[in-house]
Design goal:
Layout: E1 2-3, H1 17-24, H2 35-43, E2 48-53, E3 58-63, H3 69-81, H4 87-106, H5 111-122, H6 144-154, E4 160-161, H7 169-179, E5 205-210, E6 227-234, H8 243-253, E7 255-257, H9 271-277, E8 283-292, E9 297-305, H10 310-324, H11 330-347, H12 351-365, H13 371-379, H14 383-393, E10 399-404, H15 412-420
Parallel strand pairs: 5-10
Antiparallel strand pairs: 1-3, 1-4, 2-3, 6-9, 6-10, 7-8, 8-9
Helix pairs in contact: 1-4, 3-7, 8-11, 8-14, 10-15, 11-13
């Protein structure tokens, strides 16, 4: 079951409700007395369960033998619509969230933190810029009343999709009618009063967190102290036609860590490997990411290096952004398109991925584009399309996230100036010595 609800809908609520719902999923319900009872029921059909909350979707998923379809749909309906949310479960969830937040700040890999920061910088205080994780100060404020009020507004039939893979469509429809139609949710049948339909407003901006990164390593070999920078620009939503050229561009940029093993298939011919990691031995990471939602998107590059080389690292990244709008070689473009197609096809060999693909597409558009249709669209991308989408993207203000020792970080105005210049170079800084 996928629900069109996530941290982006929490503007009128306490931040962190989706995080709570994710952790509370598959606890006791109207039919099942405890989490253990749910797991035992699934075990009879060789089943496993999981819940994931993102910025715009909450997904309750079960994988089990096809024979157990009726049981599984019944269980999913109960978990999504009739959770008990007992005081004890809410208390355990608070503890789990506090532990997770502590763990996030101690992890050597700052990726989740940087992703939060770049979204907060790009969409200041609105929709997808709202925090996906529950802030520590809110853990004690979220209780059953708050959760029910939120669920009443967002867990409505028009915002839910039941998706399945490995079963006949008619069977699934039959089960849905039996277990989901006319169910009285735990929060009653009140009318959804306050649904947030606001569209993402891209603001651009900078979010900086000064943090001592010298002791993040675990184990005997210390990880060197690094400063992490992420620079992003607004791309487009996954409903727009330009989404495919942006996906090809992201594949063309590629990148990864400097110690990433693997041959050409791993992306060793991508621009961030060839132009950045191969030429600047002191850079530890340069990776391109593309986040896309139904009303906006964000293309960003994450780079990390020693704090003394922050300025140089930022300039290398801004130059890569400017070079995106330049000439795109035929071989390079074909390679990126082929890689994107092979990644798409390889991912869609996995049933959980097919399930998520079907669910998300139907939730957003009421239809599903099949893999061969997507491959045909990828094949049609020309170098002129890449140049067009990049030129449009470079007219926006940048979003910047910076974590670590930031003494040598260029100012936001300088980063903006570099992205508006012809060569991507930062303005010169003259230091006065007395």
């Amino acid at each position: 079951v996928l629900v069109n609800s996530g941290s982006r809908h929490e503007a009128k609520y306490l931040s962190g409700i989706s995080h709570f719902l994710e952790k509370l999923a598959f606890s006791s319900t109207a039919q099942f007395g405890s989490k253990d009872e749910i797991l035992l029921t699934l075990e009879k059909h060789g089943g496993i369960c999981d819940c994931q909350a993102s910025r715009d979707t909450i997904m309750y998923a079960v994988s089990a033998e096809a024979r157990g379809l009726d049981t599984v749909v019944n269980l999913l309906a109960d978990v999504a619509l009739r959770p008990r949310l007992s005081d004890e479960e809410i208390e355990m969830t608070r503890a789990a969230i506090r532990f997770e937040l502590e763990d996030l700040n101690m992890r050597p890999d700052p990726e989740p933190l940087l992703t939060e920061m770049i979204h907060a910088a790009a969409y200041r205080d609105n929709t997808v810029g709202l925090n996906r994780f529950c802030p520590v100060e809110n853990t004690d404020k979220i209780g059953r009343e708050v959760l029910h009020s939120y669920l009443r507004n967002y867990y409505t039939p028009d915002r839910m999709v039941l998706a399945g893979v490995g079963i006949e469509h008619e069977q699934l429809v039959e089960c849905a009618q039996k277990h989901l139609l006319g169910v009285e949710p735990a929060w009653g049948r009140g009318q959804a009063a306050d649904v947030d339909r606001s569209v993402a407003q891209y603001t651009g901006g900078i979010v900086k967190v000064e943090k001592d990164m010298s002791d993040v390593s675990l184990g005997p070999t210390p990880i060197p102290e690094l400063t992490h920078i992420m620079i992003g620009l607004e791309s487009c939503s996954f409903l727009e036609e330009d989404f495919i050229p942006f996906a090809v561009l992201n594949m063309m940029m590629g990148g990864g860590g400097s110690f990433s093993a693997g041959g050409p298939g791993k992306g060793m011919f991508t621009r961030l490997y060839l132009n950045v990691l191969n030429r600047h031995h002191w850079m530890y990471n340069a990776t391109s990411y593309h986040h896309s939602y139904e009303d906006t998107g964000l293309l960003c590059i994450h780079a990390s290096a020693d704090p003394k080389q922050v300025r140089e690292m930022v300039e290398i990244i801004t130059r890569e952004f400017i070079l995106m709008a330049g000439a795109v070689g035929e071989v390079e473009l074909e390679r990126a398109k082929t890689q994107l197609k092979s990644m798409l096809m390889m991912n869609l060999e996995s049933r959980p991925v097919i399930f998520e693909d079907v669910g998300r597409q139907v939730l957003a558009t009421n239809t599903r584009k099949l893999p061969h249709e997507l491959c045909a669209l990828i094949s049609q991308v020309k170098s002129a399309d890449i140049k067009r989408v990049v030129t449009k993207m470079l007219h926006k203000k940048p979003a910047v996230a910076a974590l670590g020792d930031l003494r040598d970080l260029p100012t936001y105005e300088h980063i903006q100036a570099a992205l508006s210049s012809r060569d991507g170079r930062l303005p010169r800084v003259y230091r006065l010595f007395r």
